[in-house]
Amino acid sequence: GQSWIQRNWRPITMLTFLGLVVCDSFGWLASPLAAEAWTLLQIGLGGYVVGRSGEKIINQIKEK
Fold first, then answer.
1. Which own/partner pairs from 46-54 qualify as long-range (CB within 8 Å, at least 24 positions apart)?
2. I need a labelling partner for 12 at 20 to 30 A (CA). Which of 19, 35, 47, 48 fits?
3. DSSP annotation string for 8-43
4. CA separation for the pair 30, 40 (Å, rounded)
5. Are the C-beta atoms of 48 and 14 separated by less than 8 Å?
6. In the prediction, which pLDDT does 25 show?
7. Contact 29, 17 (CB under 8 A)
8. Considering the chain, what percentage of its residues have pLDDT values greater than 90?
9. Packing angle between helix 4-25 and helix 35-63, nearest 10 degrees?
10. Angle at CA 35, nearest 5°, toward 11 and 12?
11. 20 vs 13: CA distance, rounded Å
12. pTM summary value
């Protein structure tokens, strides 16, 4: 995408989750993260990695 938000929403989302994990680890949250939050984080991280890899592969295929 051409807009700033299109290019950066995934890293922002993952950094937000990282912040939540750090806060949870140090006990800085009012209540611990629920199991569903950890599942969402796993899915999000997997989707992020697969999505970025897919984008790079598609771009290489388009160039050839």
1. 48/10, 48/13, 48/14, 51/10, 52/10
2. 35
3. HHHHHHHHHHHHHHHHHHTT-SSSPPPHHHHHHHHH
4. 19
5. yes
6. 92
7. no
8. 27
9. 150
10. 10
11. 11
12. 0.63
